[in-house]
């Protein structure tokens, strides 16, 4: 008997549960399951209507039940025109599932219908990861929101309830997280468009630093939405808990982490390569590019590389073996709308990169860009010619992961205020400055070998670093084996400052912004709130004198690269570049033209264009003028190869000796790279005829 009663109770409970679930599903005013996405439209199961999907990129992906819609965060959303929107009045409820790829730049709806000044409702998430429910009641918007951030790349169930009288309640994952008594009656937004994944008004992103240099923009949803419903009644806590329990997704949403693209992992054949780097589909989709959009310089003895990518406006980056990016900035000036710089060129309209040389000895890459503001206005326009400021940066990079940055400003006012350098760490989603930089983030050194390391642990270092005196070398202490360095010749009178502005130590001890890279909207300053978007941090500026100058141009040079050694170990390199040892031609039909610091190379020209012979020379090295790897450019050599004798020993081409050729309109130059360090004189012979000689590698 007891058993029969027990079974009857179980049966009755099951029946009531089924009926309750059915009642909950009954008669929603709108129900987007997103299982049927065809012809750029989605199906509303409640009304049978199809709603248009706007924007460049969207996808049908797996959801909590069947399929869901993925929106790109830049352009895509679902639109129900106001005249066709369901009538929402009195008590109502809105609920659905979502997962975020990144936090929006401001409050962004999962769904909303409203006029900013006088009516409507909103359910969504803000730039700081808080979810909220809002409605217009009485004479103002009234809202509840969460205290905690919603995690990225995780399914969340969200619901907003208005009881039709005096209370609004917000639920997340089946539980009440906020509730509020309100004043006044809810005012529906009759005739207003209903929007899924896009806000109805334009405004500046949350965290904007310089409003005059930032555009008002629409806010879009970056992530996945599923099982979205509107009800013309107030659901209770049991209904919400049941709906949350009904879907328990076991698979993660289709929102993988978005590391910045650097090309194939590991070492590769030394050289510069055209490619088109893929970031993630939603970001890639709007770009009007085909093959060969980007350039990567690879090294055969290291996974480090040097990358020119359109996502950074082609600002080139050294990338460590574990994916930490660093760059030496760019030319920048200013107008009344903000910064004029390549950062502002979000679509790379004026920023271009091309490979000039790529051979076994070295790589030369040319980056050209305009100094424009966020609205593509040029800086310092010449009233006579109509030309504004342009920059040409030429990077000459050798196999030892050391290169010269030669920056030329093309301007009617080359002596006007410009910034020529900024030490910038670029971060992908999931990276924070204090997780890729040591707190002792900066080491400065001088040509005498004195060093000093600066720490951000307790406070930001003083803006003008005083130690060591005469510093001309910096080493950025990233959490990697290989670290980036930059040095300037002492004769160019270098000085440093440490970036001391726009720091929020409660968020991060380093300055941290995300208006660049990869951000497509006009802005030259927005604080990073979290590590959800690509971002950057800055450490120093370097100031130094020109290498060359004309009435309409100025050129400055820096030496830069990657090292796994200490700052002291960079001193011989700095000496070899700043004060290169003298070279003497001992034999051959060649004229020595001088040492070109902008190429880190000794330059020769043949005096016998018809039949140039062998070249023998001596590099008179010393402790003050050491050799730190050798580069020779021999104009007029021709297409032939060369055999090297170093202090009488034959060195075959291999790890320590490489050659390449640079073809010109009139002749072909031989490019030679020799791995060798010395503080004593070195004799070099390049033999044209003995290519079959054998020696050591």
In a few lines, what is going on in this structure?
This protein is mostly beta strands and 697 residues long. The protein has three domains: 28-246, Sandwich (Jelly Rolls); 271-570, Beta-galactosidase, Chain A, domain 5 (Distorted Sandwich); 580-687, Sandwich (Immunoglobulin-like), CATH 2.60.40.
* Overall structural domain count: 3
Q: Specify the number of helices.
A: 5
Radius of gyration over alpha carbons? 32 Å
Report the portion of residues in β strands: 35-45%
Oligomer: single chain
Enumerate the spans where pLDDT stays under 50 for 5 or more consecutive residues.
5-24, 690-697
**CATH class category of the largest domain:** Mainly Beta
**SS class:** mainly beta
For the secondary structure, the number of strands is 47
Shape: elongated
Mean pLDDT: 93
- Assigned CATH architecture of the largest domain: Distorted Sandwich
What is the first-to-last residue Cα distance? 95 Å
Q: Helical content, roughly?
A: under 10%
Give the biggest beta sheet.
16 strands, antiparallel
Indicate the CATH topology of the largest domain. Beta-galactosidase, Chain A, domain 5
């Amino acid at each position: 008997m007891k058993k029969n009663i027990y079974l009857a109770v179980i049966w009755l409970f099951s029946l009531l549960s089924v009926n309750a679930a059915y009642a909950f599903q009954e008669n929603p005013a709108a129900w987007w399951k997103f299982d049927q996405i065809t012809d750029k439209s989605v199906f509303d199961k409640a009304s049978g209507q199809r709603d248009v999907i706007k924007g460049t990129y969207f996808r049908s992906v797996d959801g909590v039940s069947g399929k869901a819609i993925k929106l790109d965060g830049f352009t895509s959303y679902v639109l129900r025109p106001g005249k066709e929107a369901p009538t929402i009045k009195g008590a109502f409820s809105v609920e659905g599932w979502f997962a975020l790829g990144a936090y929006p730049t401001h409050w962004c709806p999962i769904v909303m219908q409203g006029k900013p000044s006088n009516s409507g409702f909103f359910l969504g998430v803000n730039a700081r990861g808080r979810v909220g429910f809002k409605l217009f009641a009485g004479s103002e918007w009234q809202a509840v929101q969460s205290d905690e951030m919603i995690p990225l790349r995780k399914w969340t169930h969200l619901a907003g309830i208005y009881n039709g009288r005096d209370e609004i309640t917000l639920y997340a994952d089946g539980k009440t997280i906020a509730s509020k008594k309100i004043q006044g009656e809810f005012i529906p937004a009759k005739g207003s468009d209903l929007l899924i994944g896009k806000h109805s008004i334009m405004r500046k992103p949350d965290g904007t630093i310089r409003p005059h240099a930032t555009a008002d923009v629409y806010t879009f949803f970056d992530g996945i939405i599923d099982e979205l419903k509107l009800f013309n009644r107030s659901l209770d806590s049991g209904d919400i808990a049941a709906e949350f329990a009904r879907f328990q997704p076991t698979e993660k949403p289709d929102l993988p982490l978005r590391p910045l693209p650097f090309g194939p992992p590991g070492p590769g054949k030394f050289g510069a390569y055209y490619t088109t780097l893929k970031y993630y589909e939603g970001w890639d989709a709007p770009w009007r590019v085909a093959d060969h959009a980007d350039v990567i310089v690879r090294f055969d003895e290291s996974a480090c590389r040097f990358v020119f990518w359109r996502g950074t406006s082609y600002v080139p980056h050294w990338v460590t073996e574990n994916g930490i990016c660093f760059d030496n900035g760019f030319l920048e000036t200013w107008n009344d709308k903000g910064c004029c710089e390549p950062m502002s060129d979000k679509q790379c309209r004026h920023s271009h990169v091309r490979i000039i040389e790529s051979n076994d000895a070295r790589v030369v890459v040319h980056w050209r860009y305009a100094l424009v503001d966020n609205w593509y206005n040029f800086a310092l326009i010449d009233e006579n010619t109509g030309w504004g400021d342009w920059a040409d940066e030429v990077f000459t990079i050798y196999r030892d992961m050391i290169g010269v940055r030669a920056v030329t400003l093309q301007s009617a006012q080359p002596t006007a205020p410009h910034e020529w350098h900024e030490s910038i760490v670029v971060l992908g989603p999931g990276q924070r400055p204090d997780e890729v930089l040591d707190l002792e983030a900066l080491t400065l050194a001088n040509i005498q070998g004195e060093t000093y390391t600066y720490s951000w642990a307790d406070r930001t270092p003083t803006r003008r670093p005083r130690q060591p005196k005469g510093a001309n070398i910096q080493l950025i202490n990233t959490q990697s084996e290989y670290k980036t360095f930059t040095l300037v010749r002492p004769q160019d009178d270098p000085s440093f400052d440490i970036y001391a502005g726009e720091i929020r130590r409660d968020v991060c001890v380093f300055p941290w912004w995300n208006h660049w890279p990869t951000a497509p909207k006009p802005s030259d300053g927005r604080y990073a709130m979290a590590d959800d978007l690509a971002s950057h941090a800055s450490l120093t500026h370097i100031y130094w004198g020109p290498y060359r100058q004309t009435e309409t141009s100025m050129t400055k040079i820096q030496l830069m690269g990657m090292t796994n050694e200490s700052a002291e170990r960079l001193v011989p390199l700095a000496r070899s570049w700043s004060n290169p040892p003298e070279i003497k031609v001992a034999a051959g039909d060649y004229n020595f033209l001088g040492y070109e610091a902008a190429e880190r190379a000794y330059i020769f020209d043949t005096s016998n264009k018809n039949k140039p012979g062998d070249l023998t020379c001596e590099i008179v090295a010393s402790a003050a003028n050491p050799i730190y790897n050798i580069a020779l450019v021999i104009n007029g050599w021709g297409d032939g190869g060369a055999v090297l004798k170093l202090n009488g020993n034959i060195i075959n081409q291999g790890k320590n000796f490489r050659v390449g050729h640079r073809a010109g309109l009139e002749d072909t130059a031989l490019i030679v790279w020799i791995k060798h360090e010395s503080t004593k004189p070195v004799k070099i012979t390049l033999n044209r005829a003995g290519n079959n000689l054998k020696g050591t590698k």
